[in-house]
Design a protein that fits this description.
2 copies of one chain form a homodimer. The first copy, chain A, is mainly α. Chain A contains 10 helices and no strands.
Amino acid sequence: MPNAAGPGSGAAAPALRKGQTTRAAIVEAALAVARRDGLEGLTIGALAERLQMSKSGLFAHFGSREELQLAVLNRYAARFVDVVLRPALARPRGLPRLRALLENWLGQLAEEIEAGCILIAGACEYDDRPGALHDTLVSVVEGWKGELLRAIQAAQDEGHLDRRADADQMVFEIYGLMLMLHQDARLLRSSHSVQRARRALARLIESARPRTPGARAGRGLRRAQY
Amino acid sequence: MPNAAGPGSGAAAPALRKGQTTRAAIVEAALAVARRDGLEGLTIGALAERLQMSKSGLFAHFGSREELQLAVLNRYAARFVDVVLRPALARPRGLPRLRALLENWLGQLAEEIEAGCILIAGACEYDDRPGALHDTLVSVVEGWKGELLRAIQAAQDEGHLDRRADADQMVFEIYGLMLMLHQDARLLRSSHSVQRARRALARLIESARPRTPGARAGRGLRRAQY
């Protein structure tokens, strides 16, 4: 995952700091617009109105609409890292960390049901529109899939998951459940989608547990949870 | 699934028939545009240019852009019924029919990887835009989920799948695999997505097979396929 949060800028001149603060506030407002209308629905005009700024004032911070959209996408990715990935990395390597990743992702999606997930909606918007936004979206999604893959492989290394399980296949199936959760909750207003995704994730993990009773008992991990 | 194919119009006056033919040709062209640019990207202007017609000529057939978008969505749904659902209904009730449904859907998605699936892309476009398009999309998606549910329940009635399996949960997981196939193939240009979805579908069906060896052997159905 790209992490847009830069190093601290304690030594920056006050004018620069103020500029950065304004820029950050603009990106936050733009992120709210993009959640509602999609990255493609994010226009300088709509944002200027929302912020009660002039369009030229906005262009002073972002040279183009695409630059603003990219800043929003990177901000979203950085927050995703903070909320979903980073807390899980504090958990023990193996199944505990994988479970934390999945639970944090579920929690993030459950919160986003009203607003919409920029990564999932963006994948639909940009899957056939070449350009910087498409490329950034691909790198964010691939980065996140890479994190999931590493977590699964670590659980295999620790003996918590069967080494013969196809880790790439597991990433595919896990991601599909999250896409369905998003569609079911948003389009069909289903109230069961988080519960359904959680149940399927538990089954998926369970079916990849080592087959030898010794390995399972030896690790002290319980069945029927993920 | 709504079926937009109306009854035959053999007795219609020639002028009416010609009007219907033109309308059908416009809808076909509009469907191609919507596959590329999304239903939201379908504009009367772009379509008029593609068809080398005047905008007013188009408006003679479709009173509004929304009417055109609805016609495209209904045409897509009718074709989906013809290609995915109807051939499967010719197969024996139970697991053979369910497998045919899933294989036809996979085939349809595999063909749509370049053009994009209107149902999946539309779900992202309209999940939070109230209106006739949203409502029609919801009814198409719910109708299709209903067909899948009925096919699973019939397989349970026939003893091909365990009656204790949660059929709604299976629909959720199956649909998620198809969403992931679409995203992986289109956004990430993965060449394995159809194969991964097929493998996961086989595992999903296999895990819902009856547990008693008698029931399985008695039906003469083989394992490890779906």
